[in-house]
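tool=predict chain=A
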Amino acid sequence: MKRRDFFTFLLAGVAGALKGDAASAPRTHRRESHGASVPPAPTQLNRVGVSTSSFRNRFQTAHDESAKTPAGRLALLDFPQLIADRFKIHNLEFATSHFPSLEPTYLEELKASLVRAHSKLINIRVDVKEIDQAGGLSDSDLALRSTAIAVVRSWIDIARQLGAHSVECDPGCTDPDDLMPTISSYQQLASYSRAKGVIVLMENRCDVACAHPEALVKILRAVASPFVGALPDFGEFPDEVTRLRGLPILFPYAHTLCHAKGLQLNANGNETAFDFGRCVAISKQAGYKGIYSVEYEGDDDAYAGVQGVVNELLRYL
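tool=predict ok
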């Protein structure tokens, strides 16, 4: 199958924006099912997703005790219906730190909750210590690198079980002068992910990847697999100069997902930390056809913040 045909086929499975029940307050336990809603006609929300990372401090498994505690906790089982009801969005992204269990029965329950909400899991962000600490997938120590690869493989299996298109596993502390350990890791993951039908994505995170997006492009070119791609994040750059240099070279390698970051929204609902509209324009110029997953990291209420980012995104799509 040709590369373009492959991604057309892959993205055809992305669920559109579907009508949910009336908006509901967040729950800390699984809600009772009241039957599936009838899907409406597609809208621009087909291209929009929401990440659990926007509500990171509301999940018990990832709550920062030193942070301001928001009212109401969330359970991952409730997340699909909550986002469908409140935002009319059905493309979702889960972070691994928000999974309370990996037991097969729980994962089947989670898959059923996606079906009930007419929602699709687009991506799983693998934020585990084996990747986030030390060198991760770029470590010079082969044993440490092999451990990180094994963990990512286990999440590729879970992504396949839940019907996710991709997993995000970032390269860790990359050495821009020696990319071979990183390239080797992603080559091994490409082979495994191809067999599972799940794409491996890398975001412009960590100090080196943020400041040197060219290093990510070198990795992607060296791996040269349709099962390894980029996940451009609007907000994960040290400055505007790097952002405007990095996004145009990363988006040609982005086929399923990018992060529409929200950092500082003003009273008019506009992002003030960077030029949000220009980021969307760059994605369009690159011919990007994937999902814009909203990650709100501002100080305001997460629900209002996510809605603000969604509103701004829809103005530019």
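The chain has eleven helices and eight strands. The first helix runs from residue 3 to 11.
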